[in-house]
Amino acid sequence: MQDKEKTRITVEIHGHHYTIVGTESKSHIREVANMVDEKMREISVKNPMLDLNKIAVLTAVNTIHEYLKLQEEVEQLKEELKKLKG
User: Fold this and answer.
1) What's CA 26's distance to the chain center, in Å?
2) 1 within some domain
3) Which of 19, 37, 64, 73 is deepest in the core (most CB within 10 A)?
4) Number of domains in the chain
């Protein structure tokens, strides 16, 4: 099994530069970084007294919350599809 070629890209998130290495395309990594940046800025605007670490943790918590909700929705849709095929 061949390893995918690694992609290395520097992105800016909430005013800081990060080098991201992964197997996804540069455009995908850039899109992820932009979404993280957007969420961090949204939290920062609503809570201007928070430091960077707290903003990052709240961003992670909100993102995982959204991910879990989407996972639940996918499972429900799979069950509905099973019943329809049934």
Assistant:
1) 15
2) no
3) 37
4) 1
